[in-house]
Design brief:
This protein is α/β, with parallel strands linked by helices. Among the domains are: 20-107, 3-Layer(aba) Sandwich (D-Maltodextrin-Binding Protein, domain 2), CATH 3.40.190; 228-439, no CATH class. Helices cover 29% and strands 23% of the residues. It is built from 13 helices and 23 strands. It has helices spanning 8-18, 27-33, 50-53, 70-79, 89-97, 141-152, 170-176, 234-237, 250-266, 307-329, 379-382, 385-390, 394-406, and strands at residues 2-3, 20-24, 35-41, 61-67, 84-88, 103-107, 115-116, 133-136, 161-164, 205-206, 213-215, 221-223, 269-273, 277-278, 284-285, 289-294, 297-305, 333-340, 363-371, 376-378, 412-414, 426-429, 438-439. A hairpin with a 5-residue loop joins strand 14 (277-278) and strand 15 (284-285). Helix 10 runs antiparallel to helix 13 (394-406). The protein starts with a strand and ends with a strand.
Length: 440
């Protein structure tokens, strides 16, 4: 059903209630403290505590924790951040199918779900969505419903312009009459999604002129960090001296900031965008980001990096680190200790030698990883080549897994086997634009 704009808020409650489930991790915490921590989507009808208090036993109070996506809420249940969560059922079903310790308790409501359109758009049926921008949060129950409704009308995701948009931005985007990405539009509009059709044998759509950002058949975004433009000449930079001696041009900064907007809009990275540091003639980052979180993984202390490396790290964290943690320990990684990010210095902080990739925000050193249970896995204390080879220690095997998995992604990967300077941390970087590989 297509509903007019004036019914948006009313129907949004039905969407949440009918298509959601309560995921429960450990109710004993709530019973001991008499405080029930509830996770929900960042929507006005979901974040109001009174919505829940009428249903809880006497003597309990409710603390509401809003999240942008059902997956974030599910992970909060797993890590114990919240006691229970009201979100789309798809994320919990996928988690349960993967062996994650989450239980689906009950439906939150018996309402329905609707596709919403502006009252003046002329959209009255599902078929009217052809060629239109449609806000979808990938991996959600709502995504599954819209895909099925399209199928029922003989259509597919190729017939619409799917735009990745978090739920909390849907209402404002609809009210404006557009569905932009949830980050400010660059002035020159170079990377705004156009969803241009490619050849019939290529159903994916390119959303960025250089092909770095694209959407697949399901409408999910793919970001190819290796197709992003580097901030500086990677070969000439290797001969620079470690000093912030020049400044970036307006064009350099604008181009870098445009790419950062793309990265932060497409990926689940929490970061603050800072002013330019230094310049192309020495140390510096044209568009630095201070990253505090890669999805569920908190970065302590926050790491100042360039956005290209940030995108590569996100891929490694999600495609390598988290699967390895669940495989070895049955729980996710929720924290990483940053040993060194942007730092204007030479390699290994030596007094002589070549400039370090850290000087460009193009490298990150990581000292340890923290599991949801609180267990800390340090490179210095847990690395064991023999232990990993013979499978004696799970922690050693985990570190070996993620070290090996980093090698196809980064240009340089170094750990304890590389040299004495790296005995207590992993170093990864994108030096020389990936033209050479060093992994040890």
């Amino acid at each position: 059903m297509i509903a007019p704009l004036v019914r948006l808020i009313k129907l949004a409650l039905s969407v949440l209630a009918a298509s959601t489930a309560i995921g429960l991790a450990s109710p004993s915490h709530a019973q001991d403290s008499k405080v029930l921590k509830v996770g929900t989507l960042k929507l006005i009808h979901g974040i109001s505590a009174y919505f829940y208090e009428k249903f809880v036993p006497a003597g309990y109070t409710v603390e509401v924790y809003p999240f942008e996506s059902p997956t974030d809420g599910k992970n909060a249940v797993l890590t114990g951040t919240v006691d229970t969560c009201i979100h789309g059922i798809a994320a919990f079903l996928l988690g349960a199918a993967a062996g994650e310790p989450v239980v689906i308790v009950a439906n939150a409501n018996n309402g329905g779900m609707a596709v919403i359109a502006g009252v003046n758009t002329g959209i009255k049926t599902i078929k009217d969505l052809k060629g239109k921008k449609v806000a979808i949060w990938p991996g959600s129950t709502q995504e599954a419903v819209i895909l099925e409704r399209l199928r029922m009308e003989g259509m597919s995701i190729k017939d619409i312009q799917p735009i990745r948009l978090q739920f909390s931005d849907h209402a404002a985007a609809l009210a404006r009459g557009d569905v932009p990405l949830p980050q400010p539009k660059p002035a020159n509009g170079t990377w705004l999604p156009t969803a241009t059709e490619t050849a019939s044998s290529q159903p994916a759509r390119e959303l960025h002129t250089d092909g770095a950002l694209s959407t697949d058949r399901r409408g999910e975004l793919n970001l190819a960090f290796d197709r992003m433009k580097a901030e500086r000449d990677p070969y000439a930079s290797a001969e620079l001296q470690p000093a912030e001696v020049t400044s970036w041009s307006k064009e350099d900064v604008q181009q870098a900031q445009t790419q950062c907007a793309m990265v932060l809009a497409a990926l689940n990275i929490e970061a603050d965008v800072g002013p330019p540091i230094g310049g192309p003639g020495g140390c510096g980052i044209a568009a630095p980001v201070r990253i505090s979180r890669f999805g569920a993984i908190e970065v302590t202390p926050p790491a100042t990096l360039n956005c290209r490396l940030a995108a590569a790290l996100y891929k490694w964290m999600t495609d390598v680190v988290q699967p390895a943690a669940r495989r070895r320990f049955g729980e996710p990684v929720v924290g990483v200790v940053n040993a060194s990010a942007y730092s204007c210095r030479r390699r290994n902080a030596a007094s002589t030698g070549r400039i370090s990739e850290h000087s460009f925000g193009n490298a990150l050193d990581m000292r340890s990883f923290r599991l949801a249970s609180g267990k800390e896995i340090s490179v210095l204390g847990e690395w064991s080549t023999a232990g990993a080879f013979f499978g004696i220690y799970k922690t050693s095997s985990f570190l070996s897994d993620i070290h090996k998995g980093a090698c196809p992604i980064f240009s340089t990967v170094m750990g304890p086997r590389a040299n004495h300077a790296h005995e207590n941390h992993f170093h990864v970087d994108l030096g020389r634009d990936g033209a050479y590989k060093f992994c040890k």
